[in-house]
Amino acid sequence: xxxxxxxxxxxxxxxxxxxxxxxxxxxxxxxxxxxxxxxxxxxxxxxxxxxxxxxxxxxxxxxxxxxxxxxxxxxxxxxxxxxxxxxxxxxxxxxxxxxxxxxxxxxxxxxxxxxxxxxxxxxxxxxxxxxxxxxxxxxxxxxxxxxxxxxxxxxxxxxxxxxxxxxxxxxxxxxxxxxxxxxxxxxxxxxxxxxxxxxxxxxxxxxxxxxxxxxxxxxxxxxxxxxxxxxxxxxxxxxxxxxxxxxxxxxxxxxxxxxxxxxx
Length: 264
Description:
The chain is α/β, with parallel strands linked by helices. Helix content is 32%, strand content 21%. The chain has 9 helices and 10 strands. It has helices at residues 13-24, 69-76, 99-107, 137-144, 146-151, 154-162, 189-194, 207-217, 249-263; strands at residues 3-9, 32-37, 57-62, 84-88, 113-121, 131-132, 175-177, 179-180, 184-188, 221-231. The strands form 3 sheets. A 5-stranded mixed beta sheet has the order 3-2-1-4-9. It is globular.
């Protein structure tokens, strides 16, 4: 069960060192970890780290410019030395030493599996909405503009955000969902190849939504495992309302990527 971890970094380099320590304690070690550092030079990973100290191969590629999330993931996935690919954000924290051995074993038993995700707990003990329905334009507008979300597109927003229970539960069975957030995403090689990786039409956002859509088009399922859990810092670069469009570049990128998704 060879697997590769791909980590795309943008200004969270020190979190990666903690993540690598946690990966070193896995009962099933990754065969390789590829880090694509899209960060500006002042925020990039230090270049004097001894990567050979880890019990798996670590490759770091410093991008000359921000390649974008999708292109960076595809770059990190190149090669034929893995059977499973795990896209893992730098801020993910893995508490269980058996996470990958158990999750890959479970996923191996599901026919036509496209990708798999797990519950993701934030520092305030809330759970990230990693499993969702496919979005509609009304749902996106309602999410960004509170008035529309409460009074005009309330049903669309609720369907988009509240269709699946995302909380961790020891006894919960895996659930097939529309799509899964790629902050922690496990993908078998056959599905990655069938879908041709992440679409590089998207700079950062909507690539995981689109991947779920293409999995479905190929007869592959996106499965959420609520009886597995990881933690994260709870900071989402896409969070914000209408006013934030004028304040934050990440919101503008999100809206642009969303436009590409809906306009085809």
